[in-house]
Amino acid sequence: MSLLSKITLKPAVVPKAGSVFVLQAGCWKVTLIGDKLSPKEKLKETQCLQCAQSPIS
Fold this sequence. Notes:
The chain is of the alpha+beta class. The protein has a domain at 15-53. The protein contains three helices and two strands.
């Protein structure tokens, strides 16, 4: 059984805008940036992109 199959991460907090979490296991390094994990911000970003791409009537 590989090491990765034994690792289970269950975050106890929800990252807020501006939060940075770095998880490291052996040669694996993962950086989570709170701004990119927020569904609200992602929704706003998607809506802004759609507005910018739609033709002006």
